[in-house]
Write a structure and sequence with these properties.
Blueprint: H1 12-32, H2 36-44, H3 51-70, H4 74-87, H5 92-104, H6 108-121, H7 126-138, H8 142-155, H9 160-172, H10 176-181
C-alpha cells in the first residue's frame, strides 16, 4: 500500500491565523508609534466579508473600547478604537470618542485630525462641534474654538457643555461680559 505524500504546505486555517497575527503585530507597531491612520488601515485588512459578523464585531469592539476608556486604560481603548474604525470608518460615536481619547492623552494634532474626519461625515453633529472647540482651545486657537462653540449652540442652544465651554473661552480671552451671557 503506497504511503501518502506529506505536504509541507500550511493548512488554510493556520495560514489565516498567522496572517491575522501578522496584521495584529503590524498594527501594534503603528499604535506604539502613534501612527493611528496606519494602524486603522492595517486592522482594515482583517475586516470580515459577512455583514452579520461585521455588525457583531463592531458592537463588541465598541463596548470593549468604551469599557477600557471608562477604566482609564487609554492605550487599550485607543487600540480598540483603531480596530473599530477599521471595521466601520463612519462610526460617528467611535470617531468622536477616539478624538477625545487622543485629546485626553495630549495628542491634540491627532485629535484635531480625527474630529475633523468625524465632522466630514456629519458636519452638524453638536457633540463633535463642541469637541472640536475644546481641541482648538487646547491648540491655542481661541477664535476658532469660539466659532466651533457658536456653531454648536446654533444647532443645540441648550447644550450645557457648549455654553460652559464658550463661557470659559470668553473668560480666558478676558471677554468677561460675553462670558456671563453663557
Amino acid at each position: 500500500m503506497p504511503k501518502k505524500k506529506s505536504s509541507n504546505k500550511p493548512h488554510a486555517r493556520s495560514f489565516h491565523a498567522d496572517h491575522k497575527n501578522d496584521i495584529n503585530a503590524i498594527a501594534a507597531e503603528y499604535i506604539k508609534a502613534r501612527e493611528w491612520s496606519k494602524a486603522i488601515d492595517a486592522f482594515a485588512l482583517k475586516r470580515p466579508s459577512s455583514k452579520q459578523i461585521l455588525k457583531q464585531q463592531v458592537n463588541q469592539i465598541f463596548n470593549q473600547a468604551v469599557n477600557a476608556a471608562e477604566q482609564n486604560k487609554d492605550l487599550d481603548s485607543l487600540a480598540l478604537h483603531c480596530q473599530l474604525l477599521a471595521l466601520d470608518p463612519n462610526h460617528i460615536i467611535g470617531m468622536r470618542n477616539f478624538a477625545l481619547l487622543l485629546k485626553r492623552s495630549g495628542q491634540y494634532q491627532a485629535a484635531h485630525h480625527f474630529i475633523n474626519k468625524c465632522l466630514a461625515i456629519k458636519q452638524d453633529c453638536p457633540d463633535s462641534l463642541n469637541t472640536l472647540g475644546t481641541i482648538l482651545t487646547d491648540l491655542g486657537k481661541n477664535e476658532e474654538a469660539i466659532k466651533a462653540f457658536k456653531k454648536t449652540l446654533e444647532i443645540a442652544p441648550n447644550s450645557s457643555n457648549a455654553n460652559s465651554n464658550i463661557a470659559n473661552q470668553y473668560h480666558l480671552n478676558a471677554q468677561i461680559d460675553l462670558a456671563f451671557i453663557h
